[in-house]
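User: 3-oxo-5-alpha-steroid 4-dehydrogenase 2b isoform X1, Danio rerio:
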Amino acid sequence: MLTGVVVCSINGFLQAHYLLHCATFHSTWFSDACLLTGLIIFFLGMGINIHSDHILRNLRNPGEISYKIPRGGMFEYVSGANFFGEIVEWLGYAVATWSLPTFAFAFFTICFIGPRAYHHHKFYNEKFKDFPRSRRSLIPFIF
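Assistant: Predicted structure for 3-oxo-5-alpha-steroid 4-dehydrogenase 2b isoform X1:
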């Protein structure tokens, strides 16, 4: 947990420092296609992430310890729907700000979360005989 706090704090500082002190935004930036598109992508990803987390939180009844297959929402297409939502969020953030630090953050988010989604998918395939074979690990219909 401490590592997560440190990494998030450093990333937050670097993102804020760049956006507040290094980046140059013109007055037309608020109507720029990148900002508007990025915000739409970001909020779409946030909705997927929140909905997926809701499904995961309600997967088991109190006291249950058995594993279950998540169903509903993006879980119908990917095993890591919450990971997919988070990646979409940060890609939207990168498009909205159109800067190297935010694209780097989105790229490294994919690098760290992608393998987790792959291993979750592999676990579900091994654990459950009735696991949906059409479901992918992270990217709907592709991966």
